[in-house]
Write a structure and sequence with these properties.
Elements (H helix, E strand, L loop, with lengths): L1 H9 L17 E2 L16 H22 L15 H16 L3 E3 L2 E2 L3 E5 L3 E9 L4 E3 L12 E11 L2 E9 L8
Parallel strand pairs: 1-3
Antiparallel strand pairs: 2-6, 4-5, 5-7, 7-8
Helix pairs in contact: 1-3
Length: 177
């Protein structure tokens, strides 16, 4: 995933902020409960928090699934992402496809709330992509290791559904676990 990420960062894609604590999705894991930042001005409504974390995790599960075939038109990509977030995920899949690669493994997320209200939640995360690895058609690694990526996401409620509308991924090494 490193090549697609570097290209996306170079283009300055995405915007928003990042967070976690929903049921685990295939290809996406979490090692601890998400917490609101200490000293935050207001508590996140539990319904909004839960829905935002669920949508965020589901978006990552969709991206992991699409990366198995590098399909930018994968039918799941727009299930939990829209607008800039969807565009970035599609761009990443196109770049992986152009490189003649696919991906194996998955990501680990530990988002936390940066800011929230009843219809918009900004999340911060350090996505662990060390096990989400690009591979050549013969199954061998492409030589680009996965890493830890500073991630910001904006999750919004529109028409009764929570989706990730903005997404930013920093380069590998932009955060530490």
């Amino acid at each position: 995933m490193a090549m697609a990420l570097s290209a996306a960062v170079a283009l300055g894609l995405g915007a928003g902020a990042c967070g976690e604590s929903a049921p685990r999705a295939e290809g996406v894991s979490a090692s601890r409960e998400a917490k609101a930042p200490t000293g935050s001005a207001s508590a996140l409504p539990s319904e909004a928090e839960s829905a935002a974390f669920t949508a965020y995790r589901a978006m990552w599960a969709d991206a992991v699934e699409a990366s198995r075939t590098s399909d930018s038109k994968h039918p799941r990509l727009d299930d939990h992402a829209k607008e800039k977030a969807l565009w970035l995920l599609q761009f990443m899949m196109e770049e992986i496809h152009k490189a003649g690669a696919t991906s194996t493994g998955g990501v680990s997320v530990e988002p936390r709330v940066a800011k929230a209200d009843k219809s918009k939640v900004e999340l911060l995360d350090c996505v662990d992509g060390t096990k989400w690895v690009q591979v050549k058609p013969n199954g061998s690694p492409d030589g680009l290791p996965g890493g830890h990526y500073r991630t910001e996401a904006t999750v919004v409620l529109a028409d009764g559904k929570w989706t990730v509308s903005d997404l930013y991924w920093g380069e590998a090494g932009t955060c530490l676990k």
